[in-house]
What does this fold into?
Amino acid sequence: MKNEQNSENTSQELVSGRIICETGTLFEVRGEDEVHRVAVGRSLLNEVRPAVGDWVTLDENNERIVAVEPRKSEIVRQAAGNRTKPQTIAANVDVVFVVTSMNQEFNESRLERYLTMIWNAGATPVVVLNKSDLAEDPQDFVDRAELAALGCPVVPVNALEDGGLEALRAVMEPDKTYLLVGSSGVGKSTITNALVGESLQETAGIREDDDEGRHTTTNRRLIELPGGIGSLIDTPGMRELQLWDAEDGLSETFADIEELAETCKFRDCQHESEPGCAVRRAIEEGDLDLRRFSNYLKLQRELEFHDKKRDVAATRAEHRKFARVVKEAKAAKDGKVY
Ligand code: GDP
Ligand code: ZN
It folds into this structure.
């Protein structure tokens, strides 16, 4: 197993393999000849939490992960609950398939949201328009998706039909790692099953229970797809992704708006009522969709909100650290040992 990042890496001989499965605190690392079940080395504990897709180095006994290669891309989501600490769910994903369907579920603004997040994660989005059998005019959906997803490939498919995924397979490459995202019910499992074929059943069979006898059906894992069309990171139970730190992604997804904004008369134009606003003019002349512009503003506000929330979390952490230092200093003065 080779990847670009690996072959460029000067410490190549040290990389032991790639994480293909995550079960609580244990990881499976696929090396050259075998799969190792390993834990995270002590020295890494406060550094980075390894994730499926990571290229890692193991200790000499192949028992612990001692190093994680810098990630080419990182798919994160907000941890459960209201904490703002992001959680890495997949590393080194090349292409994310944004699955949507040709029915009422289809929504341009949601698509833009996904694209923003994916660009920012360092991966490339591809829009997969499923359920072409349900649409009277599939091309209409393709046109709408292409407008919202400027420059991204849009692939219409029918996951239920024999051969209905050929267009998707045609864009897949052997050395790439793929991930599917999308709302519930759009056909992610159906597509995954079709791409994976027999091997998913096998994989699921082996891993039905973990060492403690618990069901581990929500495991994330990396599956090598039959037919040489790459690897897929399967993340059952993954719900809609939340935006996280997606500023760069916003510029990619809305490159048309940012380009227009550069031609506004005022550099700091808010595109509200300023004279010479190129964005407003484009909307009035029908060159820019008002919905698209509104969504751009909405995502921008959301990102600012996240930034603030994160600042608050960081400040709290600082306070706690400070409180601990004070407590320790006080204890030292009192002659107590903690
Ligand atoms: P997920 O929640 O995204 O994993 O969606 P599923 O794969 O579970 O699919 C949800 C439903 O849509 C199931 O009843 C599938 O059989 C159905 N479905 C999936 N792909 C297609 C398709 O191309 N056409 C039609 N008509 N139904 C589909
Ligand atoms: Zn303007």
Notes: Residues 130-131, 133-134, 158-160, 182, 184-190 surround guanosine-5'-diphosphate (ligand 1) (CB under 6 Å). The chain has a mean pLDDT of 82. The longest helix spans residues 290-334.
